[in-house]
Amino acid sequence: MNTDNHRQDVELARCTRLLNHGPVTIVTSQHDGRANVMSASWAMPLDFDPPKVVVVIDSHTLTRRLVEASGVFGLQLPAVAFARQTLAVGTSNGVEIDKFAAFDLRTFRGRQIDVPMLADCVAWFECKVIPDDAQRHDLILAEVVAAYADSRVYSHNRWHFEATPELRTCHYVAGGTFFATGEPFEVQATPPAVTGSSAPQP
Predict the structure, then answer these.
(1) Are 25 and 75 in contact (CB under 8 A)?
(2) Positive/negative CA dihedral, 81, 13, 182, 151
(3) What is the pTM of this model?
(4) Domain boundaries, the chain
(5) Under CATH, what is the fold of the domain 4-180?
(6) Coiled coil: which residue ranges (predicted)?
(7) Cβ neighbours of residue 198 under 8 Å, at least 6 residues apart?
(8) Measured over all CA atoms, what is the biggest interatomic distance in the chain, rounded to whole angstroms?
(9) How far, in Å, CA of 127 to CA of 152, rounded?
């Protein structure tokens, strides 16, 4: 899955839309010549302007140590075609092995941060940590300083996976089980019913 020629900038003011549907994410980090990569299911948008995200990273992990030391991290969205690697980096120990080499992960350098980004994902956030007391609870708050996505499945601030099912984002359950992002559908808001009563409404 080659995304090199399809990475297009996403407007920062709207970049949190990339996360609205709750996909599994992958965190990359680096400090003082040491790099690591881990999957993270608990990541969500927090604010719009400037855009912010929250990611849960256990305080005992190598990734957490690298993120706290560098103050930056990469957050990316894997697709169905990358599910095997997503599981692998989430179930192996970065202290014991170099996951990038062990799982043959292609990377490129971040634009605004000095962190390896995974080339074979479909969306990317470059993030700078915002110091906050919430970090005592394994939460990392960060400002998004750059965002881009694979134009084959994201454009005009919307996901469109219909033509490329292997590029659908993933939702992790447990035990190696994933769900692919499903088919989109739209509804129109129903106007409130008129009761005919003259009594004041709350």
Answers:
(1) yes
(2) negative
(3) 0.89
(4) 4-180
(5) Pnp Oxidase; Chain A (2.30.110)
(6) none
(7) none
(8) 72
(9) 23
Instruction: Give pLDDT tens digits for 127-185.
Output: 999 987 656 678 999 999 999 999 999 999 999 999 899 999 999 999 999 999 998 88
Euclidean distance between CA atoms 65 and 162, whole angstroms: 39
For residues 72 and 1, what is the distance between their CA atoms, to the nearest angstrom? 27
Name beta bridge partners: 177: 174
CA–CA dist 103, 152 (Å, integer): 25
Question: Which among 78, 15, 101 has a CA at the least distance from the CA of 50?
Answer: 15
Six-digit token pair at 95? 């202290």
In order of 11, 66, 72, 98, 117, the CA distances from 69 in angstroms are 28, 5, 8, 19, 18
CA distances from 5 to 25, 57, 100, 120, 132 (A): 21, 31, 21, 11, 37
